[in-house]
Amino acid sequence: MSLEPLDLSVIDNHAENIYEAIVVLSRRARQINEEIKIQLNQELEMFTTRMDSDEEIESNPEQARISIEFEKMPKPTQQAVADLMNDRVTYRYKEE
């Protein structure tokens, strides 16, 4: 995995300040992570009902393929940054 430096001034342009941008990015990354978890659990759910032992889980090629597919997906933080940069994230403050 390579590291890709981000220009903070570019990120800052998508929010009031850099701190607000970081909070928005972290919350969006958490949302994406939760969506990925739900999707992965739904896809792996069919394997848990069919299998009874740990040995079968390790040797199931279809389950391994799904797991590898999810591991290769972009990380939630990368997706959150891309969403912010492409103006696909909207946010608002809670009203008190």
Short structural summary:
The chain is mainly alpha-helical. It has helices at residues 8-12, 18-50, 54-59, 61-72, 76-85.
Structural class: mainly alpha
Mean pLDDT: 87
The percent of residues in helical segments reads 55-70%
What percentage of amino acids are in beta strands?
under 5%
Main sheet characteristics: none
From the spread of the alpha carbons, the general shape counts as: elongated
Helices and strands, in order, run as HHHHH
Q: State the distance separating the first and last CA atoms.
A: 42 Å
Radius of gyration: 18 Å
Number of helices: 5
Low-confidence stretches: none
The tally of strands reads 0
Describe the structure.
The chain is mainly alpha-helical and 96 residues long. 69% of the residues lie in helices and 0% in strands. The chain has five helices and no strands. The protein has helices spanning 8-12, 18-50, 54-59, 61-72, 76-85. It is elongated. The termini are far apart.
List the SSEs and their pairings.
Elements: H1 8-12, H2 18-50, H3 54-59, H4 61-72, H5 76-85
Helix pairs in contact: 2-4, 2-5
